[in-house]
Design a protein that fits this description.
With 468 residues, the protein is an alpha/beta fold. The protein has three domains: 1-22 and 99-386, Alpha-Beta Barrel (TIM Barrel), CATH 3.20.20; 23-98, no CATH class; 388-468, no CATH class. It is built from 18 helices and twelve strands. Strands 1-2-3-4-5-6-7-8-9 form a nine-stranded mixed sheet. It has a three-stranded antiparallel sheet with strand order 10-11-12, covered by helices on one side. β10 (389-391) and β11 (396-399) form a beta hairpin. α9 packs parallel to α12. The longest helix has 16 residues, at 249-264.
Length: 468
């Protein structure tokens, strides 16, 4: 995290400027693409970059053989394939791609990737463990996560669901599925039979990849359940394919229909989106938001904290203020989950705590994101400063979640490259590693029964004490 004077970013007015040039024409393959063509969501989808050969086809002599080899090696070890819209691909800095924050998010290169943490988890958040029926995760008492599809308009390298998203790779086999109205019936029945559920997050995958018919079908089925009060459609689309909001009238009107019906019933239907860098925001983004705002649609943002993408204070402040200016409410900034293929993108918990301090006060409180750690093992979202114990030297934090799983403890581990050489050496020794973890657990003074302690030890042993 590098910022000498965060007040400069807070006082700057550059968050009011939105890029509005024909930036895509710098890409050789798209030098003759008109504004209207580039603004068509169908053209964007058709011309998305989906394989290594297309990177070379699109860039021509703007990409070196060295970089192509680096990308090739990265894709061989990454847990996901690539899919990048021309909008995002054009916004990458191809004069300095290695350090570009957008390239880092969507196009992995082997030279930057690091070995996974010894205690990484493919399902870091226990979404599969906390799944009572297919496509649902039920962790918080009054909220469920609904995953009716596993496809997206882009694949993010930092995805917490890389175990199911992004198609099968050389290292990971996956069962990809799209939205299917018949397959969702069990999920609807579970929600209907649990009157405590008031809040449903419709995610995946990405809601942008649902048809207009699916948007209305799922929304209306949920609104028909009396105790469901809030629906959130989750999509990164506004950040990476804003053209869909501007030109896919059938999809947009389908969402508006659900939104209007929700208002008639006194229920809330909103969109949760996912900007992680101010570089993703252009005039296309603002125009898309203008259309949604004109219909009184609430849009909130959930960013992921990533090294070299938004880990600098001035960048995070600019992102926060730019989103606020175009009527997106900054909601969460997540400490990066401990999923495979992402070690080089993770920051330490200490950096997240300090960054939150620097950002808070740059704007109104309701437009200030909450920085959270989604506790591995299904503890849910915890404020970054609410840990029970933090061994900063060895990068081990211990958490509780009293209203989620009150009798358990949860551990998050900083990336090893952020630790001292001595600490890294201890992590490389299996005995010292286990001793450090056990010491952190026992540093939390809780009045637990023996059965509760055994339950915690069993889960921690199965989840964390099996380094891969």
């Amino acid at each position: 995290m590098i910022q000498s004077d965060p007040s400069n970013a807070a006082l700057s007015l550059d968050h009011r400027q939105f890029r509005n040039d024909e930036f895509w024409q710098i890409i050789p393959a798209w030098k003759d693409v008109t504004h209207d063509q580039f603004g068509d969501h169908l053209w964007q989808a058709k011309n998305s970059v989906k394989r290594l050969s297309e990177v070379k086809d699109v860039l021509g002599d703007r990409v070196s053989d060295e970089l192509m080899n680096d990308i090739d090696a990265g894709l061989k070890i990454a847990p996901m394939n690539i899919r990048i819209t021309p909008y995002v691909f054009s916004l990458m800095d191809w004069d300095n791609p290695v350090n570009d924050p957008l390239r880092k998010q969507f196009l992995p290169i082997a030279s930057q990737m690091l070995p996974d943490h010894p205690y990484y988890l493919a399902d870091s958040l226990y979404e599969d463990v906390d799944s009572p029926v297919p496509m649902l995760t039920h962790r918080y008492p009054d909220k469920v996560l609904f995953l009716p599809l596993t496809t997206c308009p882009v694949y993010c390298s930092y995805c917490t669901r890389s175990r199911i998203i992004g198609g099968s790779t050389e290292s990971v086999e996956k069962e990809t599925y799209g939205a299917n109205m018949e397959r969702t019936e069990e999920a609807f029945q579970y929600i209907a039979n649990n009157p405590c559920i008031e809040d449903v997050v419709i995610s995946g995958g990405d809601a942008f990849n649902m048809t207009a018919k699916h948007i209305e079908f799922i929304g209306n089925r949920l609104l028909e359940i009396d105790h469901v009060r809030r629906l959130r459609y989750a999509t990164k689309g506004i950040a990476i394919l804003p053209q869909k909001i501007l030109t896919d009238d059938r999809w947009v009107e389908a969402f508006f229909n659900v939104h209007r019906r929700g208002r008639e019933l006194g229920k809330q239907v909103v969109i949760h989106t996912h900007f992680s860098s101010p570089r993703e925001i252009t005039e296309w983004s603002r125009r898309a938001m203008d259309r949604l705002f004109a219909e009184s649609v609430i849009v909130r943002n959930q960013a992921v904290l990533q090294e070299g993408v938004n880990s600098e204070t001035d960048v995070m402040i600019r992102l926060t203020k730019k989103m606020s200016y175009m009527n997106i409410q900054p909601y969460y900034v997540y400490v990066h989950d401990m999923v495979p293929g992402c070690e080089h993108l993770r920051t330490s918990l200490a950096e997240a705590v300090e960054l939150e301090k620097q950002v808070r006060g740059c704007t109104a409180g309701f437009n200030t994101p909450t920085f959270v750690c989604d506790a591995p093992g299904g503890g849910g979202k915890r404020h970054v400063s609410s840990y029970e114990h933090y061994d900063q030297e060895n990068g081990i934090s211990v958490w509780r979640a009293p209203n989620v799983k009150p009798d358990e403890l949860f551990l998050y581990f900083d990336p090893l490259y952020k630790l001292s050489a001595d600490s890294q050496a201890r992590w490389n020794d299996a005995t010292q590693r286990e001793n450090m973890v056990n010491h952190a657990i026992h540093s939390v003074d809780l009045k637990l029964t023996q059965d509760q302690r055994q339950k915690i030890s069993k889960r921690l042993e199965s989840a964390y004490h099996q380094p891969k």
